[in-house]
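Changelog excerpt

This revision adds worked examples to the README so contributors can see how folded entries look when concatenated. The first example is reproduced verbatim below.
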Amino acid sequence: MSNKKFILPYGDALKDFLTLSILSQADLKNLLRKRGVFFAEADKINTIPLCIKTGIAPSELDELKEKVKTKEDNPKQQTQSIEWSGDETTLLSAIQDDLDIHDITNEPFKNYNIIGTPSFKPIANNPNNIELEFTIERHDLTKSWDKNTTQHTGKVSFKKSSGNKSVNMSFTHTSKETKIVASKIIKAVVKGMKSDGLVQPETQIVKIRFNDFDNASRIKFLKKLSQNQKSNSLYFLDTKDIGFKPDNSMQLPDEISWMEDKINNLIIQGQDLHSTFFVKDQQYHPFLQVYRLDTDFSFEFDGVVGECRLSLEFSGFIVQRKNNAEFQINVTKLRITENESGVSHNKIKERLLSSLESDKLLLHQKYKLP
């Protein structure tokens, strides 16, 4: 039993593991429910002390570690844009020759390293549609009970919009560290473009944030983004989950006044939820802060056929109480019925995420506050 991987964490080591942000309140709540333990308020501040006092079984540890791995391996995508002043200059030529990903991400006490020397490459030989894929090696050290080295991937993409008016930027990340790396790369590339006069110095990166909308327009944004997908490559089927809370800054109508001072977060699960009165009856929209839709789609492209569930979410609005939470999409379920070319699941997920990229920006522009 000298191998630390066979030692169950306890005390501070267990506390460090359970407080990982990627383990949600629901994860711990469900674990305790299996023990027959129920909480009126299942916040981590209540569930973690109990887990530390009672300890954790090997099967429970395996279950939580698998949740961490699954959530991190699942690609998530965020999309941004910036005004372009470089006319016909290609994006590939706009990348500065001295751009060094290792220098960009160099910082003291980081727990990861970038593997190799990644660089931007054109997609389909188009110098105005470029991407950089990277892999990091992360070193996890949680006190004395475990030590792991894991690899995680990420991708940064730049694409000119039609008319050369703006550049769409997206990054796909898995772990928290790949998100950090992707954000640093975008920031460095934009800084270089500004110094070369391709982007005006005062121009800001446009992000899709929760507080870009009022309550009613945010619902329109989420509804249109999901239900307007009617092509074979991505076809809307059903709304399965809706996450929302009442806007506590407003006086609620009598019909939904039961929520007042009682509901901090409500998730409705079921079928055909886009037809429920919460979504269909627009008189309630100004009073509801909808932050997440989980929606089912069918898809067919390049010999790949199947169904998926996409989570459209302003991540961080509920857990971190961030009114400026940035919008992101991730694939929570994937079922493949045909895959003639043997495309990997992660590549299929990336293709599904990118299929919503242009619509995200157009609908953001349409429904955001002036």
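The second example, added in the same revision:
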Amino acid sequence: MNDPTGRSPDDEPEDDRWSPVAEGWGRWAPTLDAATAELDRALLDTACVGRGSHVADLACGTGEPAFGAARRVGPGGHVLAVDSSSGMLRVARIRARAQDLPWLEFVAGSADAIAERGPTHTAALCRFGVMHFDDPPRVLATLRQGLTRGARVACAVWGTRAEVPFLRLPREAAQRHGLLDPEPPDEASGPFRFGDPAAASALLTDAGFDEVGVSTHSVPLRFHGPTEFARFLLDVSQLVRDAAQRAAPQTRERFLADLAETALDHASADHGLCLSNIARIVHGRAP
């Protein structure tokens, strides 16, 4: 989703920065899956995933949308789900045990692991991963080598800073308490770097895809209250976990209280919290 927004750099064979929060991702899977359900359906539809499709999921994390893709393609298809974090893959494989999907394969690696299979995949997905690649066009160009001609690709990226409160609020709170350096205003890096539709579109154009387009989707994260929201962030966000661990006890207490208080601006009618976040799907075709 560093924060819960993606996975790992493209040029590292194994990246365990996500392992400290992988179990947290597993614990909060019902909350995260509910929030991304509409987005995941849109990813599958946009990539034209259907019965018998052969799908590659780059930076699969703890298993979605690979699980949804596997259910859709059925036994006549195949899903190759790739991630470079051993901790995330461990959780994904544990989750897979509860599902009868033998045509779903989890593999450690990055785009190279997909490309080395040859141009065999009819669709490709990447949910909240490309923002964290060191060289996104190069990674996506490598991914393209593993796709058949005419294959569809759909990548989800977060919107702009203003559109994604569940990521913006902890960053701002950490900065207020001196636990995070101010970030560059141009969003040249980090989770919001492709929030502008033009920047998102350039991702696939620069990687050699055609028929590129961008759509906008809602990702509503719901919690029983601000305390649960803070606990969620401590479990799944490397940024929040690192900030809390670095802080002196009193600063940590103030930081977490600040997080909970700012989240109250998103109180819902049922006395819980609903943080409405915007994601974009950039999609294209392999020529």
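Reviewer comment on example two: The first strand starts at residue 54 and ends at 58. Residues 109 and 154 are 19 Å apart (CA to CA).
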